[in-house]
Design goal:
Elements lengths: L12 H35 L7 H10 L1 H82 L5
């Protein structure tokens, strides 16, 4: 058996606030609008005059509806199980992802430091040769300036 921790695991406050906002607009708001429209449609159907409905249509519905209702019940059960699993996972995942993000930030800093240490000798060597080349060009230009007569 696993013990519950005394304190909740830390969450990243920025991503948690963004998640709450997105959850409202992507889940709660459409659910409220859809439920309201469904109830409005039910009220409209109940208050309208249905007229005479054939007895054979009622019998056909009795034989046709149980199969889709059973499939819908199975789908609803599976959906409920997935929602429960996601709820349990969402309680654990943000703090774990925050820890992983912090670890990867440290790894990134170490990799960058090692990469800079590896590249530094190459850059110093190239800088040395570039400086030597620039010095050579400067000396050649001074030598040429001394040889040319001044026409002023």
């Amino acid at each position: 058996m696993s013990e519950k921790p005394d304190t909740p695991l830390p969450r990243n406050p920025e991503t948690h606030a963004l998640h709450r906002q997105e959850a409202f607009w992507q889940i709660t708001a459409p659910l409220i609008v859809g439920t309201t429209l469904l109830f409005a449609l039910i009220v409209l159907v109940v208050l309208s005059d249905g007229g005479y409905v054939s007895r054979w249509a009622d019998i056909a519905l009795i034989w046709v509806l149980p199969c889709p209702m059973l499939i819908a019940l199975l789908i609803a059960g599976a959906l409920g199980g997935m929602v429960y699993g996601m709820w349990k996972l969402s309680r654990w995942l943000p703090s774990f992802a925050f820890k992983v993000q912090n670890i990867l930030t440290l790894v990134q800093a170490k990799v960058r430091m090692i990469a800079n240490a590896i590249v530094e000798p190459v850059l110093r060597t190239r800088a040395f040769f570039a400086g030597a080349e620039a010095l050579k060009h400067e000396l050649v230009e001074r030598k040429l300036d001394r040889k040319e007569p001044n026409h002023d």
